[in-house]
Amino acid sequence: MLKGIDPLLNADVLQALRAMGHGDDLIIADTNFPADSVARQTALGRLLRIDAPAADVVKAVLSLYPLDTFVDDAAARMEIVGKPDEIPPVQKEVQKEIDKAEGKSWPMIAVERYAFYERAKQAYCVIQTGERRFYGCFAFRKGVVPPDAE
């Protein structure tokens, strides 16, 4: 373990987060998402895992990962089929973690299921969680870390 780094973040995940650049997408998916087949199509080309609830994984990732402030879709959720405006508890929990990490209300857009799959295939990588609730699938676009003030 390392001081100051959430213990959920394993070496493979840390390497991927570090390698990503501004504008790259990260997918955090539930256990029902076709994570392995989608991950094979990403830039990393293999699946990463963190066996924990989605909100815990998002909290850990966002403790290190800056969201992109230049776009409106830096945080996205898979919308419920046939109920695009409904937000299930798992997505509400993740929204709270996003807002905490950013220190303000940060909108999470809804993405239709098949459009979400397409976005995921274009992502840098996919982290599959241990989340068993439906629609625990999220996309996060990486922002920048500004230089230290001089």
Detailed description of the structure:
The chain is an alpha/beta fold and 150 residues long. It has one domain (23-141): RbsD-like fold, CATH 3.40.1650.10. The chain contains 5 helices and 6 strands. Helix 4 (89-102) links the parallel strand 3 and strand 4. It is globular and about 50 Å long. The chain starts with 10 loop residues before the first helix and ends in a 9-residue tail after the last strand. 37% of the residues are buried. The model has no long low-confidence stretch (mean pLDDT 96).
Could you give a quick summary of the protein structure above?
The protein is an alpha/beta fold and 150 residues long. It has helices spanning 11-19, 35-39, 54-62, 89-102, 113-121, and strands spanning 25-29, 48-50, 75-78, 109-111, 125-129, 138-141.
